[in-house]
Amino acid sequence: MIADVVLAALLGAAVGSFLNVVAARLPRGESLVHPGSHCPQCGAAIRARHNVPVLGWLALRGRCYDCGHRIPARYPIVEAVTAALFAGVVARQGGWGADVILPLLLVVTLIPVVLIDLDHRLIPNKITLPAAIAGLVVALAVDTSSVPGRLIAAVAAGGAFLAVALAVPGGMGIGDVKLVGVLGLYLAASVLPALFAGVLGGAVAGGAVVAREGVRRGRRATIPFGPFLALGGLVGVFAGPQIIDLYRHGL
Known about the structure:
mainly alpha, 70% helix
């Protein structure tokens, strides 16, 4: 079990390094493969010994080896967070098995969604569409009986949020609606506590902005909703079934 979790953390750190590339290059329409990792300031290629997730950044003290340009701390943070989430998923499932594939794929989907939405106020179709296809294919392969429920959850959750987006123009983007559909596909019934957590987080953040900026300026402020949906998605992954059980027993 410990070996499984350690392996998951190492794999997650490596995947997180790639997700940094996805978040930086995908919105600009650049290749995710070529050129290799390089300094955005001087263009020098990152040496292999410095391209080790987290440790490479620490060894360089957050600066380019060639020109000294500061490398944002976001890169090792994303790598470390991805490593922690991979380890958490594998630990929660009791080790490696078919049941870790969907939650790990969802983690891989949500991290670049958060980064891109924060940077560009955009949730690209190039992420949500492949994620939906991959989720459906994996569900058909490893848990066929769950597919009808997953599809119902995706349509119901996505449809409800689409209705809100159409009723309140500008309040929510269609990218958010598509992400909600993806959450339904991956989480099935656990999408309910996931969306509750996401909406609650967004409401708290919006209230904080209004309290800080005032009602007039706060209403004009744009807050990306994708990160809160992603947070809710993680709640669904790690605690969704337990929350549903608590609700049922409470009744």
